[in-house]
Amino acid sequence: MVLSQTETQSDASFFAELPELSDFAEVTDPKAYADAPVSWQVVLTDVRGSTRAIESGRYRDVNALGVASIVAVCNALPNVELPYVFGGDGATLLIPRSGLAEAMSALRGISQVAKSAYDLELRTGVVPIADLAREGHAIKVARFRASPHVCLAMFAGSGFARAESYLKDPEHAERFSVHPEGDAEANLEGFECRWQPVASRKGFIVSLLIQARGTADEKAEVYRRVLNALEELSDPSDSRPVTLSGLKLRAFGGDYSSEARLRAGAASGAKYDAALDHARKKARIGRVLIGLGASAGGFDGSAYPRELVQNTDFRKFDETLRMVLDLAESEVQALEGFLEEQRQAQRLFYGVHRANAALVTCFVRSYAGNHLHFVDGANGGYALAAKQLKAQIKAD
After folding, report:
1. Where does residue 81 rank: exposed (0-12), middle (13-18), buried (19+ CB within 10 A)?
2. What number is the average pLDDT over the span 297-315?
3. Helix (H, G, I), strand (E, B) or coil at 94
4. 263, 191 in Cβ contact below 8 A?
5. What distance in Å separates the CA atoms of residue 40 and residue 37, rounded to the nearest whole number?
6. What angle do CA 388, 393, 396 make, to 5 degrees?
7. Cα 73 to Cα 95: distance, rounded to the nearest angstrom
């Protein structure tokens, strides 16, 4: 990857050098965000027709493709720490212009895998931040320290919604969509999907989306009010959706098809069978090491599950507050009552989806700390919560 004439080394290390936030409540503060370099690009992916696919029972396929698009782009630019947010049926990433060719190849590759492995269409697009800036739209980023091993990106600014509108508007889609012609290679090394759905301990796994209304300061106050209400509603440590007690690797005969399809780029055949066998064997070894609390081959069966719980993205922000929480029936009712009251006061829009379990999809660069775990509600999660949120916006 070669830096362009207008792109400095400082630009390329933009996200890695941001100051870290340690308190999640800080992500609601506009002053916590820095402008992304104008030379960078916004990358967007989403599964076209995801709601229909989910409603037909394909929520795990949709979820896997959303994570896989992150893995493919990150692997294409291994020397740059990229900011990204997983949205359930897709993802948003920021990349330096110097990595555009590699990222485009990865996006074409994962789109081909979506078609060949799942018969689904993954919409992909790249929008220059410079184009958004010329229209007065900002792209801002914060860096949140989620655990000793992992920092998550938080996004703010109207540029993200504008970029998404470009891809869905026929007038602009031709320019900003990633066209199929050209190099196509998706490296999905590190993608893993081996954990059983994590059952709710309290009653429901709730996927929650909230979009505040008003000026930047008014929005910040709304989000602070929401986070305070959630803290009063349930102890944050008690509402985490993934805990040690809930983690169980799939049995040898379990369903490893999502990982196998993505790794093989096909739903059957010799490559698929090899990928399936690989996932099963690795999971069996993992179960033994975790059960014994033993270490082998760089995998610490005692430390890894604890790190996994810490390294989850169950709460994040990208101009929408996104959370996956484990709540009791009474807590869900109180939450929905509070949110509806705030909606009727024209302070926010929201979407809530209930499930009995959480899905965990993994991006493992190293079993010693450098692994991130994407969390969503089963049976639709964020994607179906977004359906409710969009209906509220449309009806307003």
Report:
1. middle
2. 94
3. strand
4. yes
5. 6
6. 125
7. 9
Tokens describing residue 78: 């291994």
- 146 closest CA partner among 231, 23, 325, 246: 23
Q: Please identify which residue in the block is written with the tokens 């033993």.
A: 294
275-305 core/surface letters (b: 16 or more CB in 10 A; e: else): bbeebbebbeebbebbeeeeeeeebbbeebb
* C-alpha closest to that of 114 among 177, 65, 169: 65
Q: What structural domains does the chain harbor?
A: 9-188 (3.30.70)
pTM of this prediction? 0.93
| Residue 20 to residue 146: CA distance in whole angstroms | 10
Round to whole Å and give the CA distance between 210 and 347: 10
Separation between Cα atoms, residue 361 and residue 188, nearest integer Å: 13
- Give Cα separations from 163 to 45, 63, 77, 168 (angstroms): 11, 22, 22, 9
| β-sheet with 204-212: strand ranges across | 315-317, 321-327, 204-212, 348-355
| Residue bearing tokens 């090899």 | 274
Helix (H) or strand (E) run with residue 303 in it: helix 303-310
Q: Is the C-alpha dihedral spanning 378, 165, 163, 29 positive or negative?
A: negative
Is 370 within 8 Å of 149 (Cβ atoms)?
Answer: yes
| β-pairing verdict for 198-199 and 321-327 | unpaired
Per-residue pLDDT tens over the stretch 237-290: 899 999 999 999 999 888 999 999 999 999 999 999 999 999 999 999 999 999
How many Cβ atoms sit within 10 Å of the Cβ of residue 395? 7
